Amino acid sequence: MAERIRVKGEMVSLFEVEEGVLSHSEIEDAAAVGFPSEIGEEDIRLFVKLKPSSTLTEERIRIHCQEIMARFMVPKIITFLKDIPRTPTGKIEKGKLAKIPISN
Predict the structure, then answer these.
(1) pLDDT tens digits along 15-29
(2) Is the distance from CB of 59 to CB of 74 less than 8 angstroms?
(3) Cα 50 to Cα 36: distance, rounded to the nearest angstrom
(4) Could you say which DSSP state residue 65 is in?
(5) Quick one: CA dihedral 50, 52, 58, 60, positive or negative?
(6) What are 43-79's pLDDT values in tens digits?
(7) CA 7 → CA 3, 27, 58, 84, distances in Å?
(8) If I label 17, which of 31, 47, 79, 88 is the partner at 20 to 30 A Cα–Cα?
(9) Spatial distance between the Cα atoms of 93 and 87, rounded to a whole number of angstroms
(10) pLDDT band at residue 104 under the 50/70/90 scheme
(11) How much is the CA Rg of the chain, to the nearest whole Å?
């Protein structure tokens, strides 16, 4: 899976998106992947594992992102997971994440 994707004509490092999201004190783990945009190129889908006591909402995560990153880096879709799949060596399994259906 690509670690850099093109969003609205801009190259985006998915690692930078993840690092920005992880700067929120209520987020335990995060992973970003690209998915096909309706207008060509790609959009960003974010997977988030919250800390046990967290009450964060999708809207509050999006506001956090808007405050610390460029508009084109803000994830279009945010999906909450109990766990982010990782390999035995600890690397995020982005291929598995990309296969999770997007629900409306």
Answers:
(1) 999 999 999 999 999
(2) no
(3) 26
(4) H
(5) negative
(6) 999 999 999 999 999 999 999 999 999 999 999 999 9
(7) 13, 24, 20, 24
(8) 88
(9) 6
(10) low
(11) 13
Six token digits for residue 45: 């889908």
Question: CATH top-level class for 4-98?
Answer: alpha beta
Q: Which two tokens stand for residue 23?
A: 């700067």
pTM: 0.93
Q: So where are the chain's domains?
A: 4-98
Find how far residue 29's CA is from the centre of its chain. 10
Q: Angle 32-36-42 (CA atoms, 0-180°, nearest 5)?
A: 60
Looking at the predicted structure, is the pLDDT value of residue 32 above 70? yes
Residue that is written with structure tokens 């994440």 in the block? 97
